[in-house]
Predict the 3D structure of the following.
Amino acid sequence: MPALSALWTDPVVRRHLGGPVPADVARQRAADHVLRPGAFVIGERLGLVVLSPHASGVHEVSYQLHPTAWGQGHAATALRATLAWAFDQAALPQVIAVTQTSNARSLALLARVGMRLQAKTVEHSEPQTVLVAVPDGRR
């Protein structure tokens, strides 16, 4: 999907995600995500939400949206739907999200959808914030 590949190669979208990836890597990621359970495309060309196993043994939700879709509520809607799917359909006990601490917009969004601070860490030489969601918002 060219729209998904465009997300991974966009320096604005990838600013807090380690930067853009080469086009061939982006194409492979797009192909890998199209039919993968836990990967949800937002709109026709707006973005992607992915629920995947994390190194810590839990599942992590991550998302990327095209800049033209920022600030319109699409990410919050998609994240709420993904978390509902994770708890109701996949029966996960919790879901984490990891974002650069400098990404204030992402931190605010994750709080808005009910995720709460779990830990602070450093990955890829950058301070990171780990947030957690549990079914029914319980901690």
Observations:
- The mean pLDDT is 85.
- The longest strand covers residues 116-123.
- The helical segments are 2-9, 23-33, 74-88, 104-112.
